[in-house]
Amino acid sequence: MKIAVAVAGAGAMGSRVGLYLTQAGQDVVLLDDWQMHVDTVTEHGLKVNTLGETETYPVSIRNFKDYSVPVDLVIVLTKAMAAEEKIKQLMDQGVITEDTNVMSMMNGLGHGDLLRKYIADDKILLAVTMWPAGFNGPGEVTLEGTGNIEFGRIDGTVDNFVKELNDIFNEAKLNGKISDDIVTSIWNKALVNCCFNTYCAVTDKKIGEFGAYVHSDDMLIPLMKEIITVGEQKGAKLDFDATLNKFHAMYSPDVVGLHYPSMHHDIHNGRKTEVDFLTGRVAEYGREFGIPTPYCDILTHLVHQIEK
Length: 308
Fold this sequence. Notes:
Blueprint: E1 4-8, H1 12-23, E2 27-32, H2 35-44, E3 46-50, E4 53-57, E5 61-63, E6 73-76, H3 83-92, E7 101-104, H4 111-116, E8 124-129, E9 134-137, E10 140-142, E11 149-153, H5 160-171, E12 176-178, H6 182-203, H7 207-212, H8 216-233, H9 240-250, H10 262-268, H11 279-289, H12 294-306
Parallel strand pairs: 1-2, 1-6, 2-5, 3-10, 6-7, 7-8, 11-12
Antiparallel strand pairs: 3-4, 8-11, 9-10
Helix pairs in contact: 6-8, 6-10, 6-12, 8-11, 11-12
């Protein structure tokens, strides 16, 4: 099956997803507002660094404002704080129609509620990905490690499009998996990002470097317990022991140990981070439920302190 896909946000993860789908024969366009990035990829292709080797690949990319072709699927990979504006823009320009499926693959919490303001439930897809990716500058990304894309309808329905999209992801070697509990899947990913995006940003370390610190578990465990307690109140089924074991496995250079999380890249490139949709959102939910979240609170403040 071949579908028309618009990847909204051509940063590190958008570039990975768009490139892999393009190489698998799908009709893909990357959309971004940064004209220098758009021009560089258009003229020279997308430069990909992997374990010290560099290759350049052709991909289709346009500025958001210059694209008005309806598509079958929009994958939203903008920064969380820009998502609503971009969804409305794509609707106004006719890219998103009543027949378009819209998938949020963004980091953080609360994106399903945002999509429901504009998109029918039977066209909403929520996704989490564990693929690592780094953005080096206009037209250049670092793609290393392994990962998958776990996704599902917001209402849990597994329809023909969901099944076909899973096949497409697997053909593109993106390792698709249809989730039987997308709420838990989202919170599991948020748990990873709340811990490693924040800690690696404020310590200026790669994931493996953070894990090499002998007391890293003493930093992780109380933060994990806060997030799990709040997540349970939102309907997520989170396993503390399994998550901690997964974290330890992530330190390997063969997994994501060599990777700087996206928040680290944001800090060092002078961009606003998504911390308000991670530890900040957990703290917000915690206040609603009367659950103290001191680790989430202080990490949110620390990240804002170092934002430029």
